[in-house]
Amino acid sequence: MSTVQFTLNGQSVEAPAGKSIFNIAQELGIAIPHLCHKEGLAPDGNCRACVVEVAGERTLAPSCCRSATPGMQVQTHSERALKSQKMVLEMLLADLPEQGHKWLDDRAEAPHGELSQWAEHLGVQVRPALAAIKREAVPADLSHPAMAVNLDACIQCNRCERACRDLQVNDVIGLAFRGAHTQVVFDLADPMGGSSCVGCGECVQACPTGALMPKSHMGPQKVDREIDSVCPFCGVGCLVTYQVKDEKIISVQGREGPANQGRLCVKGRFGMDYIHSPDRITRPLIRKAGVVKDVALLEGHSDWRDVFREATWEEALDLATLPLNTLRQQHGPKSLAGFGSAKGSNEEAYLFQKLVRTGFGSNNVDHCTRLCHASSVAALLEGVGSGAVSNPVRDVAHADLIIVIGSNPTANHPVAATWMKNAAQRGTRIVLMDPRITDIGRHAWRTLQFKADSDVALLNAMLHVIVTENLCDETFLRERADNVAELKAHVRDYTPEAMSAICGIPADSIREVARAYAGAQAAMILWGMGVSQHVHGTDNVRCLIALASITGQIGRPGTGLHPLRGQNNVQGASDAGLIPMMYPNYQRVSDKSAHDWFEKFWGTPLDDQPGYTVVEIMHKALAPDSDPHKVRGMYVMGENPAMSDPDLHHARHALASLQHLVVQDIFLTETAWLADVVLPASAWPEKTGTVSNTDRTVQMGRQAVLPPGDAKPDLWIIQQMAERMGLDWSYAGEHDGVAQVYEEMRQAMAPAIGGIDWARLNAGSVTYPCVSADDPGQPIVFHDQFPTQDGRVRLVTAGLIPANEQPDAEYPMVLITGRQLEHWHTGSMTRRATVLDALEPAATASMHPSDMARLGLQAGQRIQVVSRRGHVELVLRQDSGTPLGTVFMPFAYVEAAANVLTNAALDPFGKIPEFKYCAVRVASAITA
């Protein structure tokens, strides 16, 4: 890197060429006033508070957007520079309306935020002669559920506009009008709550004066403490800082982290108050004698006191474990099963699966990865030898083409989507391949809106083009791939012309995108549950692996395969062994060497046969008593299968049929209503532990507040259950031995996280593989070889397999399910977050306007959606991005649970249900 030599305040300085004077001074501890400048935003230079004097130049220079040059002589605090800096601050203060800040306490130390702080630093006071120029006051805008707009405090620094436009790429905020009437506006001067704002709050975090601020933090700005942690929602893994006052989290700031660089979405910034909901369970609950497990209660919950009674922890734990022990003794270890959680920590996942394997005595343990990316993991393990991503999301910055398939990142992974949108701003071509045209389509170079269920047809057609037009990376294939000839022979029949009739994409478009992908210097594929949640989900991913491999688009920056993880720790929970066929670090339970190692490590005999998966366990719960492997008892921690499983009538009936069900959760979820014993647990901000995000980055979550009432940390509860099941565990220390559990898990997962000890995680985030203490971590893998037996990728062919259930005259439409921006998973957390529920309070179904017209339906009316398994009623929403002949529903609403409708048919390899395709009919709720 080239450097420049110049003089700063009389001292010789050497600095990197192109670096701003402001940043150089900041690194040297020289404070220069600034208001429009903020790290992470492009320098704007409009406030002129940071001007410095450069020898020989007639005008003062804004230091934030002026680079140092050789021989330059700069004075940051010369008489001339200081006079100008003070004048800017004084004029800005003088311009503010008389009332000052509307929502800050009169005792606030800095009533205008950074402006007040810099004025105090430089001793600036408004002279009486300037006080008369104050601008006219503007009414406050309180229309948004989360954010307050007070333009009386606005200094038009443009930080909010640049945050919205350049970081989040939402393009909601701008400047309107002219001269003295210029002001910040949302869209076409709409109220913030009526604009297209998605509530990410980036503008709030950027605002220097409090003109934009969270409603929850109006008033005195002083907080009791700030706690650094990680967001508990999606798999992106954004780092956050909780601001705590009076033992409540009152606001959240984005923190510099490898995945988010300070950015957050609406859930991470404004969705944390779910932990303070009055619905929290604060005492152990035991089902009252004689109260039957009535699934009808799930449609409209009654008073919990009619079903449960409160108990002491001692009684509840005894009543939780005694029936489990009895069932194991009478019917064998396979009569018990456990569902762990991807919403908890790595340590909790590790200890839970250890409890099931060593306490229950079988491998009947699973979690929600079975319902989201099990097919992705199956195909990746088969093909590349690893179930994790090859490149982090932010690697899109190095790609010149990005394929986003079967994913709606702006809703499901909003901060990850910002990196994609940033890449598009720089010229990277995005190809959206999806049955639905979602918001990322606004930034796409090409959109291939293929027919639902035709993924393999489209992908095989692309493979055909690359093979027949000699666009393969033959060197890569020769040196690093197996089964190449078989793949090439297989795809020759899948011409774009033939597949066009199946997938609905013109042959020319298929050829154009295939050529662009193959010819890109670096191209990356990111996918979501739209790829994985099919009976052919594993085949879909096999095609993606083949696409990346035959073009050599893997193992380099800006390339690779990335299944976007849906929950905050679904990657880590899988890594830790919370799946029925794998020990920690994806070592198969049927592999003798792995089995023997864990028997020795845990000091107990272990089952050497894979356990049942989530859906299979539900089937086994309804098996006849004569079945020796009938599941009779379950322990569910932090999962809600009574909302998340397909064909909910079947799943709920299975849960209600269990002889004994123990649920450990923070709310009385739909699953908990069917429990015999409910154990009140800790929410994410109430405990310390690690999580692993979609990028394979291990990060530390820290306790900010205590659990309410008599609720206990999950790790403590698991250990109490284990003790009563005869396990001699001893994890001592702070937070119930979380550090000891992590260090044990680190041994079980060596070498993947072998170099990441507890002390290192306390210092910062680390990406695995990280095999030693001096290994910085490897965000990009597969550089030279794959972790397969021969070090080569295995290409697997995929044929056309239709969805298990096809539309017909009675059920002529297709249902697609998914998440929405404001809500997450089964809604048990986000629907108890006041802002999130205010933004999206009711269940909706989206349809194309042409389908609505054909059926005589109008937006806003209630409709009925019916499948072969059940029906729901909800409000209709018009969406031109939803394809003809389909209806889209989010699955977070118990009053209109989408999974009442969905099909439980399984992918034969990943054992994942077909959530993304089933046949339905739609009609007005009045006439249905």
Describe this structure as you would to a colleague:
- This protein has 928 residues and is α/β, with parallel strands linked by helices.
- Helices cover 29% and strands 18% of the residues.
- It is built from 29 helices and 39 strands.
- Helix 8 packs across helix 25.
- The chain is globular, with a radius of gyration of 29 Å.
Helical proportion?
25-40%
Count of separate DSSP helical elements: 29
Largest sheet: 7 strands, mixed
Low-pLDDT residue intervals, each spanning 5 or more residues: none
Portion in beta strands = 15-25%
Which term fits the overall shape? globular
Distance between the termini: 70 Å
Q: Can I get a quick summary?
A:
The chain is 29% helix and 18% strand. It is α/β, with parallel strands linked by helices and 928 residues long.
Fold topology:
Layout: E1 3-8, E2 11-16, H1 21-27, E3 51-54, E4 61-62, E5 73-75, H2 79-95, H3 113-122, H4 128-131, E6 147-149, H5 159-167, E7 173-176, E8 183-186, H6 202-206, E9 212-214, E10 225-230, E11 239-245, E12 248-254, H7 266-270, E13 285-287, E14 308-310, H8 313-331, E15 336-339, H9 346-360, E16 365-366, H10 374-383, E17 401-405, H11 409-412, H12 414-425, E18 429-433, E19 446-448, H13 455-468, H14 474-480, E20 481-482, H15 484-491, H16 496-503, H17 507-519, E21 523-527, H18 529-532, H19 537-550, E22 560-563, H20 570-575, E23 582-583, E24 587-588, H21 592-602, H22 614-621, E25 633-637, H23 641-644, H24 648-657, E26 660-665, E27 677-680, E28 689-692, E29 697-701, H25 714-724, H26 734-748, H27 758-763, E30 766-767, E31 793-794, E32 813-818, H28 834-839, E33 844-847, H29 849-855, E34 862-866, E35 871-878, E36 886-890, E37 903-906, E38 913-914, E39 918-924
Helix pairs in contact: 2-3, 8-25, 9-25, 9-26, 10-19, 13-16, 13-17, 13-19, 16-17, 22-24
